[in-house]
Fold these 4 entries.
Entry 1:
Amino acid sequence: MSNDEHVTRAILKAIDNGDLEGYQPRSYSGRAMYGRDCLGIIVARHEILKVVGRLVHAIHDFADDDTIADLLEQDPCQDSMGMDAIVYFPRLPWVDVGTDPDEEDEEPASMQAG
């Protein structure tokens, strides 16, 4: 598993654990990504500047220092979604948690279709 996939999985785990209330993960293909999907998180517009700090705080209990450092090296982007915004990380791939052979849990509720 790449470091970027590790970061994505740590973030999805934190969201699924309820550590980031109001954050909605989804696959996203932003500007100049040419159809490639990455991790996107829908947040309230007033949360945009807080996202990376809240992510680091949320994953610190179960992520190692290298994973946290990798998160801090990301270059998040943002797009408006009306009243909300999406913060997306072009270098962090969207992953299906169910595809990780080390994961024994079912797909996180935050990723399941409505």
Entry 2:
Amino acid sequence: MESQAQGELRSKSLEQKSLEQKSLEQKSLEKWLITMSIEIAARSEAAPLVVQTNTIPPKLLYSKQEAAEMLSVSVRTIDNLIMTGELTTRRIGSRVLVPHSSLLQFTKRDHSTQKRVQ
């Protein structure tokens, strides 16, 4: 009888240890989740989404070279766009200047490419 009682005690002891182990694992997992939640919250507070805004107002008029740089094209392309009327210009003395509004309007339009006939 004693051996059967000892076996039952061992079985209960093993079940108890198993439950304690599961409880420790669960507590450890909960602690880890809380820690990660705190870290994520701290990161989002420390580094909020930054939206850069241009605090310097744009120039009203740009030279052809500046306009070309802004549109990432050559000065020759700017000359062609001026000749076709796709960009408007203003003259001040001998200088040909492209208004900022003209560049914005140009960038908002669709532009078809034309095949050259040879």
Entry 3:
Amino acid sequence: MEVGFTLIAAIIGLTVWRWAIYTQPGLFVSAIYLDVAILTMALAGFQGWLGAELVYSYGVFVKRAGPTEGANGEADSKDGKSNHHH
């Protein structure tokens, strides 16, 4: 899915459209323009949701952290064994 490129194209299109409305006397913001702007905002929200879903659910482009210290001061490891020897 090329959501990012579609979003950029929509923003550029809205910018050019708005500039044309601003510079041409007699033109005004129509309901169609507002509908396209609302759809563009919805697309931006979808892109944000999709990015969060990819990062938080699937770990896309997330580097795995090393072992962390548990509550008892021992390092956690993948197999559940401590790295400290007593």
Entry 4:
Amino acid sequence: MVHQPKPIYTMPGVLAANAALSVGEIQDLNDQVAALMKASVDYFGSEPKFSLRIEINSKSEPTREHIEKFNQLLEEVSAELKLQ
């Protein structure tokens, strides 16, 4: 069963797209970021804001060491990304 994220509730006037993406789809998104930025400014007058949620359904009890190592990888993307 594929996890479907909960709907995103936004403020009036804010447009949002929400989907659970595969790794390949995230790579496709990366390929489209420049075009999405340009289209957002051209069509809506502002740059898009991207949010990311990473979920891991661990098959065993995660160790603190594994979480820390994973967080080090996430930190290479953003200091704000951390498994909790």
